[in-house]
Amino acid sequence: MSERFDLLIRGGMCATPSGIVAADIGVRDGRIAAIGALGSAKAAEIFDARGLHVLPGIIDTHVHFREPGHLEKEDMETGSTAALLGGVTSVFEMPNTNPPTTTRLLVEDKLARAAQRMHCDHAFYVGASRENIGALSELERLPGVAGVKAFLGSSTGTLLLDKEDAIVQALKAGCRRMAVHSEDEARLQERAKLAMPGDPRTHPVWRDIETATRSTERVLKLAQAAGRPLHILHVASAEELPLIAAARDVATVEAAVPHLTLAAPECYEKLGTYAQINPPIRDARHRDALWRAVNDGLIDVVGSDHAPHTRADKERIYPQTASGMPGVQTLVTLLQDALEDPELVASSLDSIPDPLAVTPHAANSKAFGLREIIGAFQEQRMDRDVICVTPLLSLCCFDLSYTAELTPGDEIALVGYAADPSPPTPSHYFC
Ligand SMILES: [Zn+2]
Q1: Is residue 418 a part of any domain in this protein?
Q2: Which residues form the domain of 124?
Q3: Does the pLDDT value for residue 20 go beyond 80?
Q4: Which residues are within 5 Å of ligand 1 (an ion), measured at CB?
Q5: Pick from 359, 381, 403: which residue ends a domain?
Q6: Are residues 47 and 188 in the same domain?
Q7: How far is the CA of 126 from the centre of ligand 1 (A)?
Q8: Distance, CA 23 to ligand 1 centroid (Å)?
Q9: For 108-112, 224-228, 231-235, 426-430, which range has the lowest pLDDT when averaged over its residues?
């Protein structure tokens, strides 16, 4: 008797723990029930994946969906729709909303908002502040919480934890991996005058390499002294990489897509303040060093740092402009595009480095211990999210599902795109 499934994904090239293999995938009761030659199997729904790569759903551990507080920039519904259309089936959302996510009530508010309107799996970061340090160890263990995030230098929103005594207290307050935005606040303040009005090319002059290394060196030492696992978000300078490599006993590290795909000064000349993000995009030496770190296995996780703003926020006179750019829907696409460039990535899709999507669960599990995350992020879902990507399709910026459509230019020709961009429904995507 032939096997029966609810869904059969036929004929795709599947990324499995043992490599890329031609295989069918049979899904039953929302779980992958079989991978292999299922030629005689029957199913209520059949998805023809010939010519496509079938990958595990991507986990993007760095997105800002701006809800509550700035729904004109993004909300959970549009942000999560964009995520699914881009092949991202799980997100960790950042705490610098308005109000910032710093209490149990505010975590519960986000979870309640997300319950009906987040189309993908999700967990929320709690923001560390002077006021909630005493509660962090309880907050980091709440259902639906991804961990604690601390802004060591100021960026978007009001969250800041820059004084050494406060950082030490926060590190000692809990035991889960603590994520940090690592820039030195005192140096940012001192050098603010170097941000020249109207000239976003001075963004990396103001927020210079030493702003990053000074902070990263300090927080790594403090984390080692406290014995606390640390996650350095969006590393953006070559100089920080050896510091992190020497502190692997406590540190994991993320590279963000803008820092991997853009370089100064061209990005500022072409995109102006649309390329303004924190930490800043620096010259090609840093981008190339980040790719070497991806290829060498130092980078644990690649995140989008999806951080949308409105056009008005981005079109004031620099430096009054907002920092951040959207990217959750183009994470997979841009990385696949980069895979076509042998100067950047020393591999093909068959031997893609860990953080670049084929084993995102392994990479993220290593960094975050995903099995510890309960509640909104349902562990049993992890093995049933799959995405199919086509090797060639040009993506038009009008296809993006963000609230704020902020991608400049008319069309970006990219290699690779999550296939079947029909309106997402949980049953369709959480196959
Ligand atoms: Zn961010």
Answers
A1: no
A2: 57-381
A3: no
A4: 305
A5: 381
A6: no
A7: 13
A8: 37
A9: 426-430
